[in-house]
Amino acid sequence: MDNGIAITAKNISKTFHISEDSHNTVKHRLFNLFNPPKRKDIPALKITSLEIKKGECIGLIGRNGCGKTTLTKVLAGVYPTDTGYIKINGSTMLMNLGVGMSQELTARENIYVSGSVLGLKIKEMDKLFDEIVDFAEIRNFIDTKVKFFSSGMMARLAFSIAVNAGADIMFLDEIFSVGDMKFQEKAIKVFASSWIEGKTVVLVSHGMPVIKTYCSRTAFMKDGQIEFFGETDRAIELYTADNQ
Amino acid sequence: MILKILNDWLGRSNKVERLWLLAKIEFKLRYYENKLGLFWALLKPLLDIFIYYVVFQIVIKQNIPAFASYLFIGLILWNFFVESTTGTIQILNTKKYLYEYSNMNKIEIYVSTLLSNAIGFFFNFIMFLIFYTFLEKESTGLSLYNFWILAVFLNLFILSLGTSLILSTLYIVAKDISQIWIVITSFLFFLSPIFFKLSTFKEALPSFDYGNPIAGIIINARRVMMEHQDPDFQLMGFNYAYAIFLLLVGLIFLNRLGSKAAEKL
User: Fold this and answer.
1) Does residue A197 lie in a domain region?
2) What is the pLDDT of residues A64-89, one digit of tens each?
3) Nearest-angstrom CA–CA distance, A132 and A244
4) Which of A26, A118, A171, A175 to mutate to test the interface with B (most CBs of B within 10 A)?
5) At A223, which CATH number?
6) Range of the domain at A238
7) ipTM higher than threshold 0.85
8) Cα(B191)–Cα(B177) distance, integer angstroms
9) Domain extents for chain B?
C-alpha cells in the first residue's frame, strides 16, 4: 500500500446534470414519465489524471469557475467521479468556508466529532483540545452552540481544528481569506512553521505569494481542465496571463 | 461486502470509539434539548400504553392476560423501528456535515444513529422489566428464556438499518418518500399484532406473521419475555432472512445512490 503516493487519479471527470424543474418526487416522476425534464449538463471537470506524492504541498490555481473546488471535492472522495478511478491513501479533510461542523452542537462537541472523523482517538483529542480552543480564540464560548457563532469565529474554529487535528491529506480551499488580519497572520505563520512538513496538502488560493512560498508544484486550471501541472513559477505566469 | 466493511472498521482502531461518540451526542441532542429531557423518553411509552389500554382492554374488551405488559413490549419494539426508519429518512441531509468534508464511510452515520436509538430502547426495556416483574399482577416472572431477546433485538436492528438505508437513499431522488413511508408504517402498525390478540390476528390474516417482518419480531419477543418459551425458530429464521435481504439491498442503494448525496442534497 505504502508506496509514497497519497493520491492517484486516473482519467477522472465530473459532469453535473442540472434539471430545470426539480424532478425529485415520486409524484413528479410518475406524472412526467414521457416528458423528461430539460437537463443542462455542466462539464465541471474534464478528463484529468494526476498523482500527488506523500508530503507534497500542491498549489491549485485558476480563475473563478474553472473547476478547482470540484476537483478538490472529487479528489477528497466527497463527490464520486464519473469516469476513471481515484486511489486515496489515508484520511482526507476538505476545508473551505464551513468545514464539517454541525450548527446544533457546541464548540466542544464539534471539536471532538471532527477530530474523531479525522481518525483521532478521544484521548488524543483531550490532549489537543486546549490547543485548538486557544488557537481559535474561543475560550469563553466552548459550550456555546456553533449556530450562535459569528462567521469569523466559525472559520477560526474550523481552521484551528484542521491545523491541530489534521488529516493525512488536507485540501485547503481559500482558507486564508477568513478571520481578521491578526488571525490571517497567525494562519500564515502556521504554514511557515513546520506544520506542513510530513503532510500532504492541496492548497487552493488566489493569493499568489502564499502559493509561491509553500507549493513545490502547482496546477493551473482552465475550463475544467488542468492546463499545466508542474513548476510553481510557470503556473503562476500562466495564471497571470489568463487574468489579463 | 459486509466482511470487507467489518474488516475496514476493525482495522482503524478509533472506529468503535467514534460510533459511540456520535451515538452519545445524537442521544443527548434528542432528549436534552427539551425541558422534560430524558424523562420524556420514559414517559412516552407509558402514555402510549395508557391510550391503547383504554381503547383495547376497557372499550373493546379483548381480554388478553397481562395486557399492559403485552402492549409494553410490543410498543417499545415498534417505536424503535419507527424512530430508526421514519426518523432517519433525512439523515443524509441532516448529517451532511459528517461526510461532506471527509471521506468517512456513510454507513457509520447510520449505525451511530441506530445505536443512539438502541440506548433509548435499552432504557425502555429496563422499564418494561421493572413493570413486568413488580407491577404486573399476571406476571410469570423472569426466566432464562429472556436472554433470547438479544437475538430478537439484533434482528430488529438489522431490519431497521436495512430499511433506513433504503429509505434515506431513495430520499435523494424522491423527496416525497417520507409521506409514502408514513402510510406504509401505519399499514404495518395496524397489521402487526401490537394490540390485537395473537389468535385473532392469525385467524384473520393466516400466515401474515410471515409476511410482515415486524410482526414476527414482536411475536417472538413476547414468547421469550412473557410466555417462557423458546422463540418460534422458523419465524425467526424468516425474519432474519428478511432483515439481511433488506440490509443487502440497502447497502447496494447506499453505494449507488448514497454516493451522490453530497452533490444532490
Assistant:
1) yes
2) 888 888 898 888 888 888 888 988 88
3) 41
4) A26
5) 3.40.50.300
6) 5-90+168-243
7) no
8) 21
9) 15-264
